[in-house]
Every structure is written in structure tokens, then in C-alpha cells.
Amino acid sequence: MFDIGELMYERAKALFPINRSLTGDGVRETLNYIKRVLPELTMHQVPSGTQAFDWTVPKEWSIEQAYIICPDGEKLCDFEKCNLHLMGYSTPIDTVMPLAELQKHLYSIPSLPKAIPYVTSYYKENWGFCLTHEQRESLKEGDYHIVIKSALFDGVLNYGEVIIPGRTEKEILLSTYVCHPSMANNELSGPIVSTALAEAIKSMDNREYTYRILFLPETIGSIVYINKHLERLKKHLKAGFIVTCVGDERDYSYLSSRQEDTLADKVAMHTLKHHTDNYTTYSFLDRGSDERQFCSPGVDLPVCSIMRSKYGTFPEYHTSLDNLSLITPSGLKGAYDVLLTAIKVIEFNRVYKVKTPCEPQLGKRGLYPNTSDMQQDYSDVRRMTNFLAYADGTKDLIDIAEKIGESALSLIPIIEKLLASNLIERLD
Amino acid sequence: MFDIGELMYERAKALFPINRSLTGDGVRETLNYIKRVLPELTMHQVPSGTQAFDWTVPKEWSIEQAYIICPDGEKLCDFEKCNLHLMGYSTPIDTVMPLAELQKHLYSIPSLPKAIPYVTSYYKENWGFCLTHEQRESLKEGDYHIVIKSALFDGVLNYGEVIIPGRTEKEILLSTYVCHPSMANNELSGPIVSTALAEAIKSMDNREYTYRILFLPETIGSIVYINKHLERLKKHLKAGFIVTCVGDERDYSYLSSRQEDTLADKVAMHTLKHHTDNYTTYSFLDRGSDERQFCSPGVDLPVCSIMRSKYGTFPEYHTSLDNLSLITPSGLKGAYDVLLTAIKVIEFNRVYKVKTPCEPQLGKRGLYPNTSDMQQDYSDVRRMTNFLAYADGTKDLIDIAEKIGESALSLIPIIEKLLASNLIERLD
Amino acid sequence: MFDIGELMYERAKALFPINRSLTGDGVRETLNYIKRVLPELTMHQVPSGTQAFDWTVPKEWSIEQAYIICPDGEKLCDFEKCNLHLMGYSTPIDTVMPLAELQKHLYSIPSLPKAIPYVTSYYKENWGFCLTHEQRESLKEGDYHIVIKSALFDGVLNYGEVIIPGRTEKEILLSTYVCHPSMANNELSGPIVSTALAEAIKSMDNREYTYRILFLPETIGSIVYINKHLERLKKHLKAGFIVTCVGDERDYSYLSSRQEDTLADKVAMHTLKHHTDNYTTYSFLDRGSDERQFCSPGVDLPVCSIMRSKYGTFPEYHTSLDNLSLITPSGLKGAYDVLLTAIKVIEFNRVYKVKTPCEPQLGKRGLYPNTSDMQQDYSDVRRMTNFLAYADGTKDLIDIAEKIGESALSLIPIIEKLLASNLIERLD
Fold it and tell me: Which of C56, C256, C296 to mutate against chain B (most B CBs within 10 Å)?
């Protein structure tokens, strides 16, 4: 039997080894892989040196090989074995130096002695190696041969964009990032779940909204994108979600937009409340991904995050321990289901109004029992009459659902029945 | 000594045996009884078949006799002995059938084996008998002779209306129902307390408001009334109360309007908080009487309920156990007192404003002690200065009372003193 | 080493013996003392009989001597020994009366047998003596010779005003009172701390606000002042504080304005929360000083109180026990510090806005680490990015500080850095 969780996990395995960074072949390779699944994906490129608000697109980085030869001849921190060994955007070098000097360029985590940390230096030329603290502790005095065959040059920054048109120009945004090397929850889960959501959205009938799904390098990618499209985003974007850290099984979580009460927040909270057992709420003060740009003053877009274990909260975060054993088919599927439910809820989240004063006579339409008898179960009828009682043309579906203590999803069949009976109308 | 509770109880006893239903002689007999107490009552009639929004006034129902002859010749479910035995709006029948077939038309309550349930079928032609579960369990196999001498015919639906004019066209509504057969808390307490309140309102001097008191068959009656008078209600109605379940001694309760913050709700909550020991709050989701129509979208009137034990919450509800032993003179009087206090509070609930900046000099008017001495009791003075501190022309009496932690009723003598001293004015 | 607390305490000692009342030499002597410290102080006078809203300025009261000669020749309640012995505004008398009659004019506190109470009769001609309950209990039958050499005559009511101009006409008010005789926390702490604050404000550079500091007799003084200046106050006053009971060490407290959410309240609550260990909040229902006038309907000014132990809450209040041992240099300095911090916060409490969409690139300005490495301490950087995230042109400094969980004071250096980097601007 086809299982979307398994499929997503297989895709994560395929993308895991690629060395992604802000720019370069790794990003392109990743986007090309996604384009094979989603032919609608268009790849965009922005030249190094391009200004975007307060930022400048950095040089492109390529890396051929990188390693350290120890005094005893052993090869250490070999980039080929683990791309986390090399600090992102390391400049080229080929030199010999004593351990004491090398130490200034080494990164490890004393509290996680078996983890290789993930470190970058995008905006200041520098080089460095990352290794487990155990390895580092075992280093002997002597001369080390440092080899980094990399290049920083005027190239391009790439990002991918998928547009799935709907009935209207009103847009829903999914934004995810493709700039971290071999990490799983805090990298691949994002593009993988976003890709599967795009496939599901394509198969939905009568989409009200146009969906825009971005695969960007984090921070500079979203800044470049916003710089180019701010006017359109402000005009059409109704809700957006940063899709990141959506692969493990430990937690569900929600990180609010800066404005806190946007449609995206309302949908996220309602969906998590009704369709997960439990979830953790983070304020915008806990932010860390591209909501930092989408919600920044002057941009002010309705963008929040629905996640599993949030970046920064799990011990494997930004280390080699965030690998394919941290994410699971079921973890990915859980996040996918919640995000897809959120999207369904948004599609139905319209303002409804009953068409006549006083309660309609449901009995003559077979929607109410004709014999009044307190021994019957009135709960289905009650759900419908409650919906009707609050469908006053001022409340959207989620407002009504929250008011009457139901999930929006469970009200969709009722709405369809009442629309068919011509008892309610959509106002927007 | 005259006791309004005893008087109300006597009236309930007189009205108890009448077989009320949505339509028919029982309603008219009940309204005629009330008209003898309140000659202002006008009786209205609406023909069967009249459209009212989504509804049609049903046929009129008359019933001569109804009973079952058991195989052993015993008479069962004799309507003459208890009008609850017959399902409301039962169609005529005279036939013999075996027990198995009869069972499909019997109603009883296994969990209340000594109670006869109250069942109706207004909008689908059907017949049925209600009996205690004990009786039902004792029925033997054999042929049963079913006799219902009833008629369904084009007639009228009746309701009564009492208007007590005030200084202005602004209206306060009391609405109660007269369509249940022999039940006490959930039927007679409503019209009985409403009648006594009408008498009390008539004797009040300088009424600001016009009072409109409706005695209707539930649901269809209020729908017909609203259909006829919606424009006027929307224009003039300031607050209304559904008067139902106001006869027992177990509880006080409040059921909010749909809008939740109308003047009616504000007055009800303030009055119950300050003039009962305790009360239960129900949301509009717990609704069940004519607030369903008065508060429906498109009608949106400020109508809530002040009750004793709410319908649906007491075990005797909609059974033969809701009889004259469930209600008491003191239970009726408690509800009457709270509702009458609510009405007094509404009458005084105006916006007041002090006439000069800074505190007035109360001492020169004998309203403040002239010697400053911390050993004195300043609490009366404090109540007055607190009232003055908040009488800023933006708050009504209840707002101020809630702000300063007093009951609105206790501030009325202070208001009268301050108006007499020309220190405050009424703004509305 | 210079200690502002010690200096304030010395000034309190100098002013303690003076017999202040609503009017008269005591007020003038006190104001002259303050004028020697603050030469800007202008002394104003208003003739007896002047109307101010609902009030009339009372006669001026002078007192030469007052005492009682006991039957045994002993001198009792000698005004020279303690000015609290004489009821404020006592009329002249020279007569002999038996103890029983004298008792009607004596005031003592049974529950505080060693305290002389503070009693006045400003608006009704009367006389009286205050003494300890122990003294009163020891009085023997016999004839008492009562001597009060006082005068009530058409004179003036005095108050002092210090104006310290700022860059704009927008005003901050400090109001304190100078009408109580020898009491310390509930009298001298107010003018003493206000005087020291005036000195500190004078030394502040680039004041945004104009400061107005009033030294008034309580109630009638503020009413007279408001009557004269209401239009200007309404136009320019942005926040004000009643400075009273600011000398002991037991408590910090805040008493809200009537409107509850003015700038003064916002600043007071924020400052007390961040710069004291703990403080007590009082509602406007607990009011008792000149906020009664400044916040009254029709005046409606943004005035609240920051205090130490509030009047009426400490046992020594309005008795001879509220003396120089109740207040301390450190108690005075604590209140001074909090009020001065509140003033600094107000000066910086502007609306800020980042100048470009998306996060600025702090790294290139040396405000953000260039190497991303989770092992670093990001807390300083986080404070700055949090400030930037909320500096959206709709929130003032305190709003942002509360949102991000910092004290406004701690954000001032960040604001200065961001203004210098041209990353933010002031909107108002």
C-alpha cells in the first residue's frame, strides 16, 4: 500500500548526502531533484553582489575537497566523508600549522562529544573545520597540513518557486529552505514535506487560493525574494507557513507570527488544537527562520510556523546527530497531515450567513427529528443548529467552530448540506 | 398577610389541568384565565397555513378522548386521567393491533420508570401514547384496542400580548410560553410569574420603558410574532427576557443571549450576582426556548433568560414529575423578585455625569463629615464619592456599580440625593 | 560621599517642626525653604473667598498659642510642644469648662494609646485638642481652662510652582502637598523628594518635556490650581504623579489613575515592575490625595501615584507616630530613584521604526557575530534583534520592552546605537 510517509522518507534519503549551502551546486542539485517531482518548479537565479534591502547577495561558493593531515599522516575532517566537517563558505587554504594555531579554526561541542557541529561564515572570509569533541581531544601536538580546495566567486544565488493557481489571486504561501548540508529534521524535512503538500494541493478540486511554494536559501533567499515581490505579497498573501523541522515524532509546535492574530495563526492554532494530541506554542520571540523576514516591520506578512520539534529545542539541532535516524516516515506524515488539514480549513474558512431570520424548519428537510422526545440523541442536529445560530455573516468558519466547540473540518459536511438546502450563503 | 408567592402558586394550580398544545382550546382557556387578571391582554389569532419566514402555521388540533383497551379489558393511557398520556398532535385512530405493533407508538423512560414522558409530533402526522416504564413493562401479549378521537383542521394559532406603556417608546420584553400540557416548572411558572410581573410593572410610577409581555406557543408562536413585528422590535427593543422555569427552589440560572453583551445580559448578570446567593451561567449553546428565535441571525434582539432550574437540567423535565410538587410559592417568589429587581435596575440604568470638574464640596451640603478624623466610619460617604468619581458621562449605572463594587439597586437612593442636590445630571 | 538620601533626610528634619495647615505662615515658611533650594519656585496666592468650581477658598488661619490648664494646674496639649495637639483651623477661645464638656472637643485613638491623632475642621468653625489616649484616660474631674489664641481672617492661600522647560510644550507634572503639620511620611517626604527630583531634572540634558512641579495645600490647592489652568493642562499634560508617602522603607506602591491606562500608569507600572523587588497595586477606589481632583470627571488628567507605604495603610498614618523615625535616607532615596527612573523612561518613551523592510544586516556593522555557532552567547544580540522586530512604528519604547520582556531602561543604549547606525528612526 502506498504510504506518503514512506515516500517522503525515501526522498529525504536521496537528498541527504548533497552538500547544500547558501549558493552553489548543492542547491541546484536539490532543486533539480524537486523539479523532477514537481515539473511546475521554476528555478530563479540572482547574481552575487545584488542589493536586497540592507543586504548584498554573497559570492557563490564551490568546494572540491577539504581535509586535514595529522602529524601521524592520518586524514582528519575529510569533507568527502561528512560535509559538516567543513565550515560553510570556508576560503581556500593549503598550509601547515601547529596544533595551537589550528585550534583557532576548530569547532566542537564539549557537551555533545560525539556530534560534529554545523558552523558557517557567510559574510566574513574565514575557514574552519568542525569535528566531534572526542576527536578534538585526541589531537596530538605537531604540524597539521590543512587543505581546502574551495572557491568564492561572483556567481548566483538560486531558489525554486512552484505556483499552483486557484480560482482567485488570493495566495497561500509555503516557504522552506534548501541551504543546509546533511541534516534531516532541520533541513530536508522542510522541502520534502513542502513537495508532498504541493502534490496534494495540485489534486484538490476547486481551489479558492493560489498556492506559492518557495524553496530558498534561508535569510538571504527570503530577503531577496521579498525585495523583488513585496508589493504583490502585500496585496495577495492571505496566509503563509514556514515549513521547517517537520520530520521527527517528538512534538508538534506552533510559532506565532509577529502580529499574532493573522489568518495563518488562527488556522494553525485551530488545526493543531483539534488534530494533534498536544502541541507546544512558541512566541515570535522564539523565532529563528524566515518568519524573521516575512514578519519584519515593513513586510508584515501573515506568516507563522507549524512544526514538529522546533529548531533550537532538540539536542541534535545543528549537528551531525540531526540525521536520517532522527526523522521517520510517521513523523513526516504527521506534519504533512496537519499542514494539509490547515490548508483544507483555509479553503473552507469563509464567512457564512443564514438566509432567513429565525431558525429554519429543519424537520421538513429531514434534518431534524419530527418527534420531540428527549430520549433521542440530538448531538448531530445540535451541531447543525449551533452552526446556524452563529452563521450571522460576521464570523468565519473557524470563528464559528471555536465558538461551538467543534473542529472546522467536522463542520464542512454540514456546510455542504446547508448550502445544498439553500439555507445559508457565502458572503465572501 | 398577602403573599405574592402563594397567589402565584394558587394560579398555577388553577391552570395545571388544562391540556395546552401549540394550538387549540387549551391555549385559549389559559389566555382567558390570564386576561381575567390582566384585562389589557389582547388575544391574537393566526390562521393555519400562514407563512412565517421558513415556517407554516400548523393545523389546529382538538382532542376529545384517547385511551387504549388492554387484552384484559383494562383502560390504559387514558387522556382524561393525564393529558401527557397522549402524544401531542396525535391523529385520530380507532383500531385493534397486537402489542408488538403498538410498541412502535409507545414512549417511556427506562431510567425514570415512574414518569410519563412528554412527547409531541407537530409537523409530521403520527400518533402515540406515553406511559410510565413500569406500566409498559407489565403489558402482556394480545390485541389492544386503540382509540384517539382527535381532529387536525384548518383553524388558528393563538397568542396573548400585554402592553404597559411607559414614558418612551423604548421597550422591555418578557416572553413566555403557553403550549405545554400539565407541567409546572417548565410551563406554568413562566406565564404565572410573567402575569405577576405585569401587575407589578403596572403599579410602578414614571416608567421610562414600555413593557411588552407575550404569552405564546413556543417556537412557532415566537416565529410568527417576530415575522409580524421584526421592524418594530429592532427599532425599540432595549432588553428582553424569556420567562421559563421560574418555579422551583433548587437553582438560579442565567442563559446568555447570542450576542452575550446586550443590556439584557448586563442587567441579568448584575442582578443575579447581587441578589441571589449563587447562580449558574449557561452559554447560548445551552439554549432551548424562544431566545433561539429572538437571538437568531437576522433577528439579533437583546434577549436572555433569568431562570431557576433550567429546562433540560432537572430530572423531572418534560415528564409527569414536573408537577405542582416541584414548584413552590417561595420558588416562584424568588424568581419574581429577581426579575422585578432586574426591571427596576433597567429603569434606573441611565448614564450619569457630574456637573462640575473636581470633586463637589459635599460637606457644605451635609453629605460629608466636617471634621476630618480617621476614627469615623466613612463607608456611606465613600459609596457616594465613588459614584461621583465614575459618573463621567460614559458609564451607565450598572457600569459604575460594577466598577465600585456595589449593587445598582443600592446606588439608587444616592442618585436621587445627587440629582436633588443638582450635582449630577442624566445624559440619556 | 554625597548621598541624596541623607541630604533629603536633613531637609525633612529642617521642615519637620513647622506648623503647616491649608493656609498661613507654615505654608509660606515651607515654600520659602524650598525656594532657597529651587530658586525657580514662584509663590502664588489666592484670596480667601475665591470661588474654584464648587469650592470657596477658606479663611487664612493663624495660631499664636494653644493649651489647656488642668484642674491641678498642669499644662496639657501645649501647641508649642507639638502642633498636632491643636485641631487644624481651631477657632479662638479662652474659657473654663468641666471635663465632661471638654471631652466633646478631645480626640484620641483608643487602639493607639501613645499616638496623638491629626484632626482638622477646615470648613466648619469649631475647636478641638488632640492627645494620646493614655493622657486622656488620666484626666480627672474638675474645671479646665481652655486657651486658643488663633485667628481666622480674610487672607490668602499659597502654593508654589516650579517650571523646568524642555524642548517641547508637552508637560510632565509632579504634584505634592504642604498642608500637614509635623508629620513625616505623609507630608514631608512628598515635598522633599519632589524638590530633589526637580534638581535632578534640571541637570538632565535635552529634556523632551517641560516639567511642572506643584507644592500645594491638598484638595483646595489642587482644585484652585486646576480651576485656573484646566485648559492648559488638558492641552499639554502627558503624564503626572502625585508625590506623597515616599519616605519609609516598608513597601513600594502604585495607585492607578481613574482612567487606568494613561501614559503615567504605563510608566509607573513598568518602572515599579523592573526596578523594585515588589510593589503593591491600589485601584483608584483606594484614592485619597490630589488624584481625586486631577482625575475627576471633567478634568480627566493622566495622573497616578508612585509611593512607598500608601497613606491609610500604615498604622502611624495621620498621627504623631508618623515622625522622623518612620522615614529614612534610604527610604527617601528608593522612592526618588524609582520616580527618577520613571522620568527617564518617559523621556525615551517614543515610537521607533526600523528604516528598511526585513532584518538589517547587523554583522557588517559589528553588531552580530559573523560566525554562526550555537555555542556562542547570543543574548545581547537577541535583545537588539528583538527590539528591531517590534520597532514597527506602532509601539512606544515601553510597549516594546514589555513585549520582549526587558526593562525600557536597558533598551536605551541599544536605541542610541541603532539611531547612530541609522537603522531606526523616531516617529513622534
Answer: C296
Q: Quick one: closest CA in C to A293, which residue? A: C358
- pLDDT tens profile A86-117: 999 999 999 999 999 999 999 999 999 999 99
C191, burial (CB in 10 Å: exposed 0-12, middle 13-18, buried 19+): buried
Instruction: Check CB contact of A366 with chain B, cutoff 8 Å.
Output: no
Q: Residues B242, B291: contact at Cβ < 8 Å?
A: yes
| Interface pTM, i.e. ipTM | 0.93
- Cβ atoms of residues C216 and C177 within 8 Å: yes
Cell numbers for C258, please give them.
Answer: 481613574
CA distances from C380 to A312, C364, C367, C383, C410 (A): 17, 17, 9, 5, 11
- pLDDT confidence of residue C374: 65
Contacts with C364 from chain A: Cβ below 8 Å: 123
Choose the mutation target among C50, C53, C54 for the interface with B, i.e. most B CBs under 10 Å.
C54
For chain A, give the mean pLDDT: 96
Q: What is the DSSP letter of B126?
A: B
Closest residue by Cα to residue A95 from A143, A41, A53, A163: A143
Q: In sequence order, what E strands does B99-245 have?
A: 106-107, 129-130, 143-153, 156-164, 171-177, 210-216, 237-242
How far apart, in Å, are the Cα atoms of B70 and each of B74, B78, B84, B142, B264?
A: 5, 12, 19, 8, 53
Helix (H) or strand (E) run with residue A347 in it: helix A329-348
Give dist(CA A361, CA A369) in Å, integer: 11
C387 and C414 Cβ atoms separated by less than 8 Å: yes
pLDDT at C236: 98
Q: Are A169 and A210 in contact (CB under 8 A)?
A: yes
Segment B49-64 mean pLDDT: 97
> Are B176 and B189 spatial neighbours (Cβ–Cβ below 8 Å)?
no
- Residue pair B93/B126 in contact (Cβ under 8 Å)? The answer is no
Predicted local confidence at residue C183, as pLDDT: 97
| Closest chain B residue to A357, measured at CA | B298
Which residues, 6 or more positions from B415, have their beta carbon under 8 angstroms from its beta carbon? B348, B352, B387, B397, B424
User: A with C: how many residue pairs have Cβ under 8 Å apart?
Assistant: 87
Chains in contact with A, counting 3 or more C-beta pairs less than 8 Å apart as contact: B, C
Q: Is B1 on the interface with A (CB under 8 A)?
A: no
Instruction: Kindly state the helix (H) or strand (E) to which residue A348 belongs, with its residue range.
Output: helix A329-348
Q: What pLDDT is attached to residue C1?
A: 57
Q: Which of B55, B119, B296 sits opposite A389 (nearest CB)?
A: B296
For residue C370, the model assigns a pLDDT of 75
Mean pLDDT, rounded, for A155-174:
98
Neighbours of B243 (CB within 10 A): 30
Return residues 36-65 of A near C (CB < 8 Å): 52-55
Q: What is the pLDDT of residue A377?
A: 78
Length of chain B: 428
Pick from A124, A128, A296: which is nearest to C359 by CB?
Answer: A296
Inter-axis angle of helices A4-15 and A329-348, nearest 10 = 120
Q: Which residues numbered 394-423 in B keep a CB inside 8 Å of some CB on C?
A: 404-405
Q: What is the pLDDT of residues C151-201, one digit of tens each?
A: 999 999 999 999 999 999 999 999 999 999 999 999 999 999 999 999 999
Average pLDDT over residues A62-90: 97
Half-sphere exposure of A56 (CA within 13 A, CB side): 12
**Which sign, positive or negative, has the C-alpha torsion A363, A366, A372, A378?**
negative
Q: How far is CA B266 from CA B237, B239, B349, B415, in A?
A: 15, 10, 10, 20
For the record, the C-alpha cell of A168 comes out as 482567485
